[in-house]
Amino acid sequence: MLHILWLIIKWILIILGIVFGLLLLAVFLVLFCPVRYRIKAYKPEEGGKETVEVSAGISWLFRGIVFNVFYENGQLKKALRIFGISFEKFRRKKKKSGQLKEERRKEQEALPEKQDNYVKECEKPYSDIRIEEQKEGKEVPQMKKKKPGLLKKIVGKIKSIPFKIRKIRLTIQKTCVKIEWWKSFFSNTKVREGITVFWKDIKKLLRHISPVKVEGMVRFGCEDPSVTGKVTAFLGMCIPFSKNCIQVIPVFQTEQNILEGNVKIKGRLYGVVLLKTAVKIFFDKNIKYVISQWKRKEV
Fold first, then answer.
1. Whole-angstrom distance, CA of residue 44 vs CA of residue 262
2. Is 107 buried (19+), middle (13-18) or exposed (0-12) by CB count in 10 A?
3. Rounded to an integer, what is the distance from CA 163 to the centroid of its chain?
């Protein structure tokens, strides 16, 4: 008896150990297996918007789970693969089978209705048919609504002036109260410290999410050289984000608008970094104070 009981306890412990190991493995995969993203864009010199090709994808678990979005020939396409298995075919088959079942059901419901209508039409006397045709040809007169006079409109607008003035005064008072609350809110030292901590953590997270690899070439030009210069200046301000990895070639002397090039972007996100940032923000005293003050704010 004790031997059987020991075997049962042993198997229960083995099953619990397997479940705990799987949960631990799942946690480690979520925290330390990165979610990778990639973006590719291509535009030839000839052609308009329809020639633009853009593809974006997100993968996880060493490309075991992949979700891709394609934009080609002016059409948007999506694809999801889990360990190499595409669910698009299964979705189409399921949709087709559902449509066939719906068509069969409608046909079966329409048959008895058609038979009943045919029998009723056959049994209906000729006099009733003539009466119905005469009724269908008659037009029902509609009652015309009387429009209010011009004098009544003017009197109504004059009467509503005090109410509108009172409404504007209340709106101004509410706005002044809100401005005073915002001033006192941002002048608080704890609120400033909380916003500073939050902004620092968010900047670290954005730096982590930012692309690790950027490469490409863009060649563009406008008929007006001043527009080309403005676009070049704007792209120059984006150098800290592109890390000067995209070659920009402006064309100032051209008789038509030019845009061509290709861009590739790759990046990743680790779950442990996201969790660390969330925990740090959640347990910060200053941020808790900011949240409490925000909840008690006067509207």
1. 8
2. exposed
3. 42
